[in-house]
Write a structure and sequence with these properties.
Elements: E1 2-4, H1 8-13, E2 43-49, E3 52-58, E4 77-84, E5 92-100, E6 107-111, E7 120-127, E8 130-131, E9 135-138, E10 149-155, H2 166-172, E11 178-181, H3 208-219, H4 222-230, E12 232-235, H5 261-278, E13 296-300, E14 304-308, H6 334-345, E15 351-355, H7 382-394, E16 398-402, E17 408-414, E18 424-430, H8 445-453, E19 457-461, E20 464-472, E21 475-483, E22 493-502, E23 505-510
Parallel strand pairs: 2-12, 10-11, 11-12, 14-15, 15-16, 16-18
Antiparallel strand pairs: 1-5, 2-3, 3-6, 4-5, 4-7, 7-8, 7-9, 10-20, 13-14, 17-18, 17-19, 20-21, 21-22, 22-23
Helix pairs in contact: 2-4, 3-5, 6-7
Bound molecules: fe (ii) ion.
GO molecular function, one term: alkaline phosphatase activity
Protein name: Alkaline phosphatase D
InterPro entries: Metallo-depent_PP-like, PhoD-like_MPP, PhoD-like_sf, PhoD_N, Phospholipid_Metab_Enz, TAT_signal
Amino acid sequence: MSDRSPTRRQVLIAGSATLGVAAVSGWGTASASPVREPFTLGVASGDPLPDGVVLWTRLAPDPLAADGLGGMPSRIVPVEWQVATDERFRHVVRAGAEIARPESAHTVHAEVSGLRAGAEYFYRFRTGNQISPVGRTKTAPRPGARLDRFSFAFASCQNYPEGFYTAHRHLAEEDLDLVAFLGDYIYEGVGTSKIGRSHTPAAEIFTLADYRVRLAQYKGDADLQAAHAAFPWAVVFDDHEVENNWAGDISQPDTEPDQDPAVFRQRRAQAFQAYWEHMPLRRAQHPSGPDIRIHRRLTFGDLVDLHLLDTRQYRDDQVAGDARLDPSRTILGARQKEWLLRNLAGRTARWNVLAQQVFFAQRDFTSGTADSFSDDAWDNYYVERNLVRERLARASNPVVITGDVHASYVADVKADFEDPSSATVATELVGTSITSGGDGTDQNAGDAVQLAENPHIKFINRKRGYVRNTITRDSWTADYRIVDYVTRTGAPIQDRARFVIEDGRAGAQQA
Ligand SMILES: [Fe+2]
């Protein structure tokens, strides 16, 4: 990758930019493009640092081609990129070129550096005479530098056959510094629907080609593209990027050939490869066979530390009954656990966020003295959850943000979940799905039981949407933004609830 400053000539001619037209603004005369309309999957940026971001696109004139190669020839193709301080690219401050390779499905991951901290930029790509749509992004404020306000949204679970991405269209209109996506970006299963958004291919996916086609199908959605183009994203996967409820090397119990862990690891390798290719992730996250390091920390001034976790790859298999109490059980794995506890014990920002996949607080689903818990959440890793909770309690303003359950929740993380009078030591904010589960309802029949059995749970709602968070030195305001329906297009966005966490006082209060 080259990373050169624009020449004076490039800067001077940048004034004539007309978006979408070749041979403008800082780029020399274009040669004929080797492909027509390659930018069908939009652009994205991600993992902002104080001096740069990673820029993403893919060349895919035929994104659903069954071989997963997007209709591209099997040879390398150069792709140029530009970063400017203005939308019309009059002031290009960085430019460079990447090689899009067939072995990475002609995806581009340009790690731009040399930018100013906490600043807004615009970016675009060119190959031949074809220019991509323009994306907007923002670098992170310098770690430790005083920051008075940070705004981000988190979202998860966007099953394509179950609804339209109306929530993403509204998300794109927000004023945000970041979007965190907490998993289930795709679903691996068979999906047919009545709304004309069936899965391609129309079968459960196992191969690299199939995962690529599935990701390309999702990324072909204009509303999702708008949300990517509007803000940098920080992504982690959950289960469905690979397979429902997988755990470490263990496939979910079913009849497929991947019940052999060696076969499942091959499937995982192909799923991770396709996932990395299609996400705005840095090379540090590039998978090595069946292994990927997705857990990482992003820091925003002295205000926010975002610890992005991986609760799938290193976990022990799900167990039934009291086996969940086994103290040797892990959901984070030894290395990630040590990394997280070290982070939390060190010098941190004012707000410490665990951005992760599955429900952290206790959730008893059964009335009366009997109890039952999800085997796919932190309740199934009881001792490790308690350890993380204890360390969280000592950190500055701990907030856990969660996806997975296709419902909005707000929960107090109690020092002892069995004792409602025990201290509240952290706050959990759970985001609903973008589409998974279809239109949804405000609450279902089981929610009254959950609220009664778990007095630390303060809010449940099962409409679709996302959570918008405004963080200041004094407070964290979480707005639960929902749409009334996703099986038709055009639903307006509504505020269903607002919760506020005050600095120095764990637990959210409804405003
Ligand atoms: Fe999901």
